[in-house]
Amino acid sequence: MNKKVIVVLGQTASGKSALAVKLARKFGGEIISADSRQVYRGLDIGTGKITRKEMRGIPHHLLDVANPKNKFSVSKYQKLAVSAIDDMTKKGKIPVICGGTGLYIDSITQGTSFPEVPPDTILRKKLGEKSAEELFSILKKVDSKRAKNIDPRNKVRLVRAIEIAKHLGRVPSLASEKLPYDFIKIGLALPAPELKKRIEKRVKKMFADGLLWEIAGLKKDGISARRLAELGFEYNQPTYEKVVAETIKYAKRQMTWFKRDQEIKWFRPEEEKKILRFVAGQMENRRQKRK
RNA sequence: GCGUCGGUGGCAGAGUGGUCAAUUGCACUUGACUGUAAAUCAAGCGCCCUUAGGGCUACGAAGGUUCGAAUCCUUCCCGGCGCA
């Protein structure tokens, strides 16, 4: 029978981190972050990264594993996360995945297999100048199979699809292979007005903790404005209002992704007892089935 | 007070007699998603009718000119600027 992995997901500021720590303490686990920006060193305040104190002694993985100057990717995330999970289960620990980046979470729970084709900056730059129509007709030539299901107007995806086809020299298989784990997916959700309040509170704290200072520091370390924008700090002069508005938008997009996943069991953040009971029940199942 | 420029959909801002329910951007709603994911992309976004399509109400207000007005004229209300 498969080993269990707990997944805690939800919109930003919904209380995931605290819940994950509690679950880890209760069930003897360690946490694996699933956040595309918290993987970078130095992006602490702006990404709402958990503090040492808040970790309450629980080891956290996949935080601070990348230099913000370089691009990270789902594929790298997947490799690191999967090996962390394997290590943990070998030690008898329960992995607790916690984060808000849907794609990253799915890369593990779906076991998506990514083609071994690293980004080709030169090719991307060249293709980037072409129109979507042009790219689409190129793709039809190099990978007609992919062309059938791709969004023909999405340049970013077209470029990547061509990139894969060119480097692989064959039609890549898009199969995904499920990992040998059972995922218990816990979603934290709360009504929009309440989420908004939490976001406001969090953003206020970000400024109080020195968000502007953090951004200035990153700039000093040689991170370009463009790169900062990629990392989600696109405001020239971040203000409380702007950051709150951006965060709310982001939270909505997160939800669009999560909604598709029928396996997520949703709770309100304050339903802690209920969640603990639910997770305990899920862990129990496994033992019974084993017998 | 005089002069002048302007008042357009949630906001910004096009249009300046018919092809305008009104370009575009933002916001908003919904959705897609296989190595950039806080990314990228799509659809919708006055009201009503089940779709094709049709109807109604709208471009500060009220009148007017015209076959026809968001667009022209008059008056009024409001705002910016200049002069007093």
Structural class: alpha/beta
Query: How far apart, in Å, are the first and last alpha carbons?
Result: 10 Å
Shape: globular
Q: Which percent range fits the helix content?
A: 40-55%
Q: Provide the spatial order of strands within the biggest beta sheet.
A: 3-2-4-1-5-6
- Helix-strand sequence: EHEHEHEHHHHHEHHHHEH
- What is the residue-mean pLDDT, rounded to a whole number? 91
Low-confidence stretches: none
Radius of gyration (CA) equals: 20 Å
Mind describing the biggest β-sheet?
6 strands, parallel
Strand content: 5-15%
Instruction: Kindly report the oligomeric state of this protein.
Output: single chain
Q: Got a strand count?
A: 6
Helix count from the secondary structure assignment: 13
